[in-house]
Amino acid sequence: MPLFWDLNALGGPWDSGGVNHGSRARAYERVALLEDARLDLPELFDEVSRILSNALPRDTACWHSTDPTSLIETSFRVEHMPAPDARIAEVAYLSGDYNSFVELATGRRHSGVLSTATGGDLARSVRYREILRPQSILGELRTSFVVDGDCWGCFAFFRSAPVDFTELERDFAHELAPVLGRCFRAAGRRARTDGPSAGLWPGVLVIDGDRHVESTTPQAAHWLAELGFAGRPECDPLPFVVLALLERVRVDGRETSARVRGASGQWVELHAAPASRAEHGRDRRAVVVLQAATAPSMAPLISAAYGLTSRERELTDLVLQGRGTGEIAERLFVSPHTVQSHLKSIFAKVGVRSRRELVGRVFARHDVSPLD
Fold it and tell me: Are 308 and 288 in contact (CB under 8 A)?
């Protein structure tokens, strides 16, 4: 089994007690400024990593952006470790293990230390037994970037034994969660649905229970290239977001989807489903469809990207259906005055002045921020 990360590149052990409150406060302020920095995701990964190198020192790390609807990890950046593969998708992101990113995203505390979650018995964690312990890793700190109830990314920081993460570091990471969520949400607003591939036919992959590609359509190569894949699907490891979708299908046995910002800046939509209802678990074959994200599928994500409340999202959906003020008021059991008040708030958040501009912002272009 290859090393999960390059132990020769590690800089530890870290003396976490040597990081004072002032350095964390400065890091917090610097990360908060990135929301308006107009960085693409790769630039954001690098800049946040650099800022937190002293405030939350670690030996190695993995960062992900996340689809806030499905909580699928859609892109990644690693520090001193190889790219996550099928084995990592199968073990490291198990929803039933301690401090799963889904648990942290939906729970009250969005950051957790593995040793604390297991009550000091790390061997209770499948992830620790099969991935971390063989690499002499003791400390694991995980954080989901949640803001306004939506998760836009996550990180896992690691330290070699005998150094672990502290409760103070866990609490600092929890305080950072909404700040990081706002930064990653802002980066997502800059993608678009009207890119050069919007009219291209979907691509299809048929994948067996061992994650081997059985067959593809010609268009699949284009969409895989949007995901940064340059190999041959039948021979080379698939992009991690595809592996993550497959693992969800294998575990849950139902359809799932994710939206990913492609290399061109266009949103790419992925759907995965069991190839046959008669198949079960690890032997389950799956079909993956890759295509340009459609406007209806993007509407919930764009609404989340602009920080709309659940009521504002509901009202926005009705506006996008062409409903008038009176009909919206009747459907939502509120007064027309309340509808107008909600619309005013929505317009301010999205950076438009009318319903027509709102529809145009959601259904036409998503390559600009509200400041444009």
Answer: no
Class of the CATH domain delimited by 7-188? alpha beta
Tell me the C-alpha distance between 184 and 207, whole Å.
31
Same fold, 7-188 and 203-296: yes
- What does the pLDDT look like over 87-131, one tens digit per residue? 888 888 777 899 999 999 999 999 999 999 999 999 999 999 999
pTM of the model: 0.79
Mean pLDDT of the chain: 85
Which residue pairs from 317-323 have beta carbons closer than 8 angstroms and sit at least 24 positions apart in sequence?
319/343, 319/355, 319/358, 319/359, 320/358, 320/359, 320/362, 320/363
CATH topology of domain 203-296: Beta-Lactamase (3.30.450)
Contact, 99 vs 22, CB < 8 A?
Answer: no
CATH domain 306-363 topology? Arc Repressor Mutant, subunit A (1.10.10)
Cα first-last separation, the chain: 49
Average pLDDT (183-206) is: 75
Residue 136's CB is within 10 A of a number of other CB atoms, namely: 11
- Pairing relation of β-strands 267-274 and 203-207? unpaired
Cis before 162? omega within 30:
yes
Domain map of the chain by residue range? Answer: 7-188, 203-296, 306-363
